[in-house]
Design brief:
With about 700 residues, this protein is α+β, with helices and mostly antiparallel strands. The protein has 21 helices and 12 strands. The strands form 3 sheets. A 5-stranded antiparallel β-sheet has the order 5-4-3-7-6, covered by helices on one side. A 5-stranded mixed β-sheet has the order 8-9-10-12-11, covered by helices on one side. Strand 3 and strand 4 form a beta hairpin. The longest helix has about 70 residues. It starts with a helix and ends in a 9-residue tail after the last strand.
Length: about 700
């Protein structure tokens, strides 16, 4: 019959709950009424502990592992253990004095009361499965519910055979209708008693292949399973050694009587260690991946305890002090007050309990749900910054990684976009797409958006805490949810890269323009201007010769040509200085701007007090911006212009005030030049028809110059 997972969980949890209830109830009765003198009730604490411990384990694990055979082995062991405790209670209630002499007690089964006879038959049937299921099938099938290989099937057959032989021979030995006297512990002097004891010993030997299977699992599994197996093997070894010590103590301390309280308590220690090893493997190494279930269970158990304590403090304690709920008592007031207090503290206590439970299960790391929630919220946050370092930090917090890296794919190469490491920033180099390592300490996942890989996520963990399946699952989930985020980040970075390329291209163009200006100015000064000056000198010579020879007309003509030549020299000089003024390079920005004031065609007031020398590209940017602005303002009809340049907080700020403009200013070229220099341009209308143009360029005065 193929049961659904939901039905399996329901049946398994019912079995586990019944085991816990039977174990607790039976042990209470045995402890209250028994004297630990029966041959069978000495095992009641052990079986009850097994019922509670493995019952809680099965209850917790089954929702995540409904088809895991090893978990079902623990569930049935818990049920048999709990049932053993309850049946022992029945035996204690119905036993005779003849059976209160420990394992040497003799009695006739047919003479026992019916409840005692039935109880002995049930105990004989269930104690072997209760004790040896966890140590044989539970270990052989651990942790995934499958045998290490087909060759291990003989272990199942062997254990089933020895248990059946032991149970059947015991039932015959203690059968309800037996009229001969038997001992509480089977007598090896009879063939049937020998069969009982030998089959029990052979069943006990079934624990050996159980531990051998753990060795095989350890050698063939990854680091995570190895650590889980190591804890279970350690707990099992303590259980076996403890049992042997118990036998020695049993023979040396108490003689033939197994009934001392010390012996019973000592016999519990190995079993408690074995059960605790399972819980350590579950909580620390994510065995069975039930961390969320444990977290919620711990949180709500703690919440229930707090509510119970509040009710006891507010309701029960006053009733005990006051002494009743009669006419003079508080009546319904105390329960109402308790309900009000619980309502007030419920949410704060619940939140605190949940945080405490998360820290208990996950340690200092973030829960997977916190990580995924923050990744999802970042997708809808338009104001969020790049966030790659934050995403890497979330990954590290969620997995306990010592380093987490977010990679972006560009040009077929993975580039580190964000990283977080416990030992501080580390230098990361670009990698090929397939160069990321996946092993016990490293794991990576590609990030896709619309079937296109846009990046990757990678984590690295220390040798003491290798990659777990939960880490891989969280990494996969984050990679699946981070595609859109990384796409946006990739696009933003691509836009930034292209903007930088455009700015760099603009800077190269402006630098080329300025270099060409400088070359033209030099060519005009050293070429055409010098030729015209030489022509003027020659005309002077012609004038002198003409006057000496009496050629007055030629002399007059030479004088006129010399004047025109001088005008041409002045015009060439003005053109050359307009292209690139020599004063800007030799004397600096302040002197060059004052020269503009002297040659301006409209009223111009210049204030450059306190301006020193700056890097060449800064002075060129400010000078040509001033020159271009003045020309644009003149063309727009300005009648009065003021220019002020000052060094302010690491920037050279230029302010141009133009009045009575009759047209709009075209400042596109100025804005382009300023942008190439990482500067800004602000145009502010003034009262009337005035306009203020403010340009700011990052600059630092050169050493030795005023600022």
């Amino acid at each position: 019959m193929n049961l659904t997972d939901e039905l399996r969980v329901r049946v398994g949890r019912t079995l586990a709950a019944a085991a816990i209830l039977l174990a607790v109830g039976g042990l209470v009765v045995v402890a209250a009424l028994g004297e630990w003198k029966l041959a069978w009730d000495t095992l009641a604490p052990v079986n009850a502990t097994m019922g509670v411990g493995f019952g809680a384990l099965a209850w917790t694990v089954l929702p995540r592992q409904p088809r895991n055979s090893s978990v079902w082995a623990y569930a049935w062991a818990a049920f048999f253990g709990g049932l053993y405790a309850t049946v022992t209670a029945v035996l204690v209630l119905s036993t005779t004095d003849a059976m209160r002499n420990g394992p040497t007690a003799t009695f006739v089964p047919a003479d026992l009361p019916a409840p005692a006879g039935v109880a002995i038959g049930v105990l004989i049937t269930i104690w072997l499965p209760a004790v040896f299921l966890p140590l044989t099938l539970g270990l052989v099938l651990f942790p995934d519910g499958h045998l290490p290989s087909r060759r291990w099937r003989w272990v199942v057959r062997y254990q089933a055979t020895t248990m059946v032989v032991a149970v059947v021979s015991s039932l015959i030995y203690y059968n309800r209708w037996c009229t001969t006297e038997v001992t509480a512990v089977a007598d090896t002097g009879t063939p049937l008693g020998l069969t009982v004891n030998v089959s029990i010993i052979l069943a006990q030997l079934g624990a050996i292949p159980g531990f051998a299977s753990l060795v095989v699992r350890y050698r063939t599994s990854d680091a995570t399973v190895r650590r889980q197996v190591r804890w279970i093997a350690s707990g099992g070894a303590v259980a076996v050694v403890g049992s042997l010590i118990f036998v020695l103590i049993d023979n040396g301390v108490a003689g033939d009587s197994p009934g001392t309280t010390f012996e019973n308590l000592f016999n519990l220690i190995p079993l408690i260690v074995l059960i605790a090893s399972f819980w350590v493997a579950i909580t620390r190494y994510r065995l069975y991946e039930i961390d969320a279930i444990i977290s919620k269970s711990v949180a709500y158990l703690g919440l229930a305890a707090v509510i119970a304590a509040l009710y006891a403090a507010v309701v029960i304690a006053p009733l005990v002090v006051i002494g009743g709920t009669g006419d003079g008592g508080p009546g319904l007031a105390l329960p109402i007050v308790a309900a009000a207090v619980v309502a007030l503290v419920f949410e704060p206590v619940r939140a605190r309990m949940q945080r405490w439970a998360n820290r208990l299960v996950y340690g200092s790391r973030a829960t997977p749900y916190e990580v995924l929630s923050k990744v999802t919220s970042s997708l809808s946050d338009d104001t969020a910054d790049d966030g790659t370092d934050g995403l890497a930090r979330l990954l590290a917090q969620g997995t306990g990684a010592s380093r987490a890296v977010v990679w972006l794919l560009h040009g077929g190469v993975l580039h580190p976009a964000g990283a977080w490491a416990t030992d501080g920033p580390a230098a990361l180099e670009p990698l090929a797409v397939h160069a990321l390592i996946d092993d016990e300490l490293h794991e990576s996942r590609p990030v896709h958006h619309l079937d296109e890989q846009i990046g990757a996520l990678s984590i690295a963990k220390p040798p003491s805490d290798p990659i777990t399946p939960a880490d891989r699952e969280l990494l996969t989930d984050v990679a699946a949810g981070a595609g859109l985020r990384l796409r946006n980040i990739s696009l933003n970075r691509e836009l930034e890269r292209r903007a930088l390329e455009v700015r760099a291209s603009r800077q190269r163009l402006i630098a080329a323009q300025d270099a060409e200006r400088h070359r033209l100015e030099r060519d005009l000064h050293d070429g055409a201007q010098q030729q015209v000056v030489a022509l003027k000198v020659k005309l002077g010579i012609v004038k002198t010769i003409a006057e000496r020879e009496g050629a007055d007309q030629i002399a007059t003509l030479a004088v006129g040509l010399a004047d025109e030549t001088q005008q041409a020299v002045d015009a060439l000089r003005a053109v050359a200085h307009g292209i690139y003024p020599p004063l800007l390079e030799s004397e600096g920005l302040a002197t060059a701007v004052r020269a503009i004031e002297r040659t301006a065609s409209i009223p111009l007031a210049v204030d450059v007090g306190g301006v020193g020398r700056y890097e060449r590209h800064v002075e060129e940017t400010v000078y040509f911006c001033v020159l271009e602005t003045l020309e644009r303002a003149r063309m727009a009809g300005a009648t009065d212009i003021g220019v002020a340049i000052a060094d302010h907080d690491g920037a050279l700020v230029t302010t141009v005030d133009a009045t009575r403009l009759v047209a709009a200013l075209d400042l596109t070229a100025i804005a382009d030049r300023l942008d190439a220099a990482l500067g800004t341009l602000v145009v502010t209308p003034q009262a009337g028809t005035g306009t203020r143009i403010t340009a700011s360029v990052p600059a630092t005065a050169l050493a030795g110059d005023p600022a």
